[in-house]
Amino acid sequence: MIIVMKRGASAADLSYVVSQVETFGYKAHLSQGTERTIVGVVGDDRPLENHNFELLPGVEQILRILQPFKLASRDFHPENTIVDVRGVHVGGDKIVIIAGPCSVESRSQLLETAWAVKEAGATILRAGAFKPRSSPYSFQGMGEEALELLAEARDEVGLPIITEVMSTEQVPLVSKYADVLQIGARNMQNFPLLQAVGRTRIPIMLKRGLMNTVQEWLLSSDYILSGGNRQVMLCERGIRTFETATRNTFDINAIPLMKGLTHLPILGDPSHGTGKWDLVAAVGRACIAAGADGLMIEVHPDPAKALSDGAQSLKPERFAELVASVRQIAAAVGRTV
Amino acid sequence: MIIVMKRGASAADLSYVVSQVETFGYKAHLSQGTERTIVGVVGDDRPLENHNFELLPGVEQILRILQPFKLASRDFHPENTIVDVRGVHVGGDKIVIIAGPCSVESRSQLLETAWAVKEAGATILRAGAFKPRSSPYSFQGMGEEALELLAEARDEVGLPIITEVMSTEQVPLVSKYADVLQIGARNMQNFPLLQAVGRTRIPIMLKRGLMNTVQEWLLSSDYILSGGNRQVMLCERGIRTFETATRNTFDINAIPLMKGLTHLPILGDPSHGTGKWDLVAAVGRACIAAGADGLMIEVHPDPAKALSDGAQSLKPERFAELVASVRQIAAAVGRTV
Amino acid sequence: MIIVMKRGASAADLSYVVSQVETFGYKAHLSQGTERTIVGVVGDDRPLENHNFELLPGVEQILRILQPFKLASRDFHPENTIVDVRGVHVGGDKIVIIAGPCSVESRSQLLETAWAVKEAGATILRAGAFKPRSSPYSFQGMGEEALELLAEARDEVGLPIITEVMSTEQVPLVSKYADVLQIGARNMQNFPLLQAVGRTRIPIMLKRGLMNTVQEWLLSSDYILSGGNRQVMLCERGIRTFETATRNTFDINAIPLMKGLTHLPILGDPSHGTGKWDLVAAVGRACIAAGADGLMIEVHPDPAKALSDGAQSLKPERFAELVASVRQIAAAVGRTV
Amino acid sequence: MIIVMKRGASAADLSYVVSQVETFGYKAHLSQGTERTIVGVVGDDRPLENHNFELLPGVEQILRILQPFKLASRDFHPENTIVDVRGVHVGGDKIVIIAGPCSVESRSQLLETAWAVKEAGATILRAGAFKPRSSPYSFQGMGEEALELLAEARDEVGLPIITEVMSTEQVPLVSKYADVLQIGARNMQNFPLLQAVGRTRIPIMLKRGLMNTVQEWLLSSDYILSGGNRQVMLCERGIRTFETATRNTFDINAIPLMKGLTHLPILGDPSHGTGKWDLVAAVGRACIAAGADGLMIEVHPDPAKALSDGAQSLKPERFAELVASVRQIAAAVGRTV
């Protein structure tokens, strides 16, 4: 941490700042500039985050040098984490394709989709049982019945399953069924929920919040990791910007950026990232070209009849084309699907 | 709902769309333009929100005419709702000032602040017991102990209390103590939590999410209202934009906009809205000039030592000045403090 | 400037960085932390802005300490600048109201509006001759004919006039007529235009770009000021965010923030800041309550027939009500209209 | 255009709206809903854009059905436009790589870079002569001298050249030298400049503004196209969002979206899109995977010494690696470099 003194701060102000730094057990290192004096705080000053040196008399601003996240950082864990989902490895050389309907709507809809995505090359099945919907008047998901159908689909089709958990109270129930617990975008900073899933030992997929920075995303990862659950994968799904021609703006930069900052696997969700089915394949290919470890894609046997997210869902045949084209891209970057 | 057909959609496409509309029990009203044909859906089509007419062959886009929120709308409830907080009326002619520290840190800190803000003119006391913090390494609040201190402050100082509830599991505990349950910005779309507080009969303050539109905010209000709890007040606290010179961008437009759209009271929180103590009073005055029903202000006896949000907290004497200047503004718009 | 070395940077990397700093004539001040070494550059290092120390081997990041703007800064010019527009003082105790139609549409429309706004209390007349329109198919303004009508209105009604200049080539022409040259939001970073108006000695109103930070705004001010034209006033007119319920998001925080950072007068334009006539008065009052030096308001005798910006224009009688209510707010903050 | 009447609008309001629509020569088509009445305007109502039906008594809102852009639209011009830059075809099957330094800094810097990028596979040379810089204290480009050096580089190295033109006054000068005139992001809505380059017959590259929607981008294209210059190519270069970990947020969605909306070629600029040299190759590959027609990349022989944009410039050897990897991606999507 660096404390920048105001132009014209007094010697007394400066001494007081130094004494405060020393009070907390740190050394203060002074540097006298021509316009400003700066005070360097020597030591791991993350514990000082709560202290408001910027409010001391004569202080202009505080500059932080250390990234605030730790456990998710490559600085502390240089090798890639590989998450094991019933034998499917996420974060290794092989690209992982997660696919399925937005919501479980019926046994037949789920099984039909599950068989189709498996045949096309998906290795994990997704579908929502509890759905976070902006409107209380929208379909809210089938709940536990959907979880049972998901378990049945896993047994019958042979794909591990991922589904969303929306509150601390749901964690025990959803944990009974799911192979991966998904934390949705709107819950990326639901800290009690992060703590609750951090106490499980089930793999977690943490989606990026639609208005959250990558730094906040990594801090939220630290919430889970610090509970002892090291099986965390991340998923970029688009952020909210001024552009309304697409549902969200997929932040492609975040893919290579995160690969540098963290050891955790990162996937892309071009279905939410675009909100338009006819853009999904192109952005899915872009994810893999940019270095993503996998994709999460919404597929529905009849999107026009889907109870949620129909506009961004692919028909099974279009999904199969997507996987084929992603396979080409994966080969071009030295990976496989 | 209006369904816009593509340029060159076939007659068969059009008949199919019409038949689909009729399947759901609505009438379809056709209008043949020179470039496009449009199909009007006659009736309250909110139940069709889940149907994806935009995916039918020949359809270009869907335009929605009805606002999706209902219970929060002035259309359905023209008179202002006045929320009664132990005799303090929020939403009437009198401006309500809620003030107190960001977090409860100790008995003396809380009581000292409570007496000071009461003396300056505040009528509700705020302070956090459970704190949503971006970093797991930051101070997380004193929990139930803080709730007990808040209850003691209420009894001793005579101000009703508001404090945040962060998860469904905390609702019973916090409800035992609080006069108003606060839903924080990061939980504005925590739907299970909205449903849980909607089942109580305690007044709720719903803060706007830092990434949420006013329409989403009103839909989240409908989540609470549709549970039967009609005691809802709203609080604008700034949104996230590209500007980094302030912590958030206070959306002053939202104050008069919301007064037109909804019957619920609306307050402003310039402490979070700016993130800088020296901007708080100016933006607080602006809120009242724009028609807000009250303010929520962070006050700390020694901001430099605050365990959270020190940079945006006012010292008691500065808070007293703020109230004095707000009183002038209130008079200028025909209200009182 | 502070150069933060990577964890594990070598001694050779460090010496090279120090030698580079010294090459440019600065002293390097080292501070050895537990996790990182930092190098402070002693001296006014703004000239080093073009140098890419972050690319030197072993460097992690660069932190800048000095604000990049100079002439607009209160650091260098503590007293308020007061701009004199034919005897109307902008930036003093008296609030300035600029009003008029978005565009000049006809002699009668302009004169009728001019008389009405003068009577209601405006002291400067605004109207566009050259209009920046997103679509080439929209009305583009009446050009020089409008300038002549503006000059006539000034003579007849007795209000100084402000109008927009859109390109370097228009500067001589518009300068012949206008008492204030307006630089519109889309031109805030049109640097040749800033330089061109900086070479005149006519007062300039520099509107904030709809996606520009306050720092960029002050740098653009420096472009004008460094040409020798010290008669610069600023106008906040809303920024672009994710919220679409209003045309722009008026950044009320920017009003007190700018009053602290710069000595230049700052006005608010709630017409563009909201895009909705029924929100204009509330946000206009908020501007004055927050410390703005004036307002710029669009007024049209028949907004439904306006050729541009009708939706945000006030009828003359509503404008008169606005001025009356602003007068109350001005009194509440110790100023007059 | 669809005019939505307010709940409870009177019959007189409705008749007046209908009469107004008919006044302009359009037919009004009424549709009576259960909550709202809507009035469809039959005909190409783009000329009505300036009319403010939303202000008529009893009107709630206006919904527009037609896209406002025309000449850039695939609706009106289904086949791809191919721009011919001295024999280099932009918009065909072959991917075009534009590369070179941000600014011309010296004869040797330019030639060294030109030879290197040509050898690596670039087919057009870029470099700035006039530089739009946020700060008046930054390097502003070498001006005409740089244009002469660019012409020399073209002759010697054999690559056509692209360089930016910043104002209407510079158009004749820059046109004497450049094979493609670049309109920079900050000038995307500099309408006089768009009109000026629309009057030339030189190919134009129109970069997306950092604050502009794709709809505005296409309207700006229409400004150029309607001047008679049909040689327009577009370049996505990142937009401004709340995320500060990268310089801009590259909008990868815009690539396939624009390929659907317009017949004009679209390129990606991952140098500006990320602002960090170590992310450029990954995002460049993503562009091609998503369907872009080319890339624009900043290359400098010694980025640490670059006078502008060093942080995002590649060394020639890294650029060669990028081209090699892009070649693989191009093959994977059935194209060549």
What do you see in this structure?
The structure is a homotetramer of 337-residue chains. Chain A is built from 10 helices and 14 strands. The first copy, chain A, is of the alpha/beta class. In chain A, helix 2 packs parallel to helix 3 (144-157), helix 5 crosses helix 6 and helix 9 (277-290) packs parallel to helix 10 (316-332). The longest helix of chain A is centred in the last third of the chain and has 17 residues, at 316-332. The first copy, chain A, is elongated. The interface between A and B is large, with 53 and 52 residues.
What features would you highlight for this structure?
homotetramer, 337 residues, alpha/beta, eight-stranded parallel beta barrel, 33% helix, elongated
What's the gist of this structure?
Four copies of one chain form a homotetramer. By secondary structure, chain A is α/β, with parallel strands linked by helices.
Radius of gyration of chain A: 23 Å
Biggest interface reads: A-B, 53 and 52 residues
SS content category of chain A: alpha/beta
As laid out across the biggest beta sheet of chain A, the strand order is: 7-8-9-10-11-12-13-14
Oligomeric state:
homotetramer
Low-confidence runs of chain A = none
- Average pLDDT over all residues of chain A: 94
Number of strands of chain A: 14
By DSSP (H or I, 4+ residues per run), the number of helices of chain A equals: 10
| Beta fraction of chain A | 15-25%
Question: Can you tell me the overall shape of chain A?
Answer: elongated
Strand count, sense and barrel status of the largest sheet of chain A are: 8 strands, parallel, barrel
Cα(first) to Cα(last) distance of chain A is 44 Å
Percent of residues in helices of chain A: 25-40%
* Element string of chain A (H = helix, E = strand): EHEEEEEEHEHEHEHEHEHEHHEH
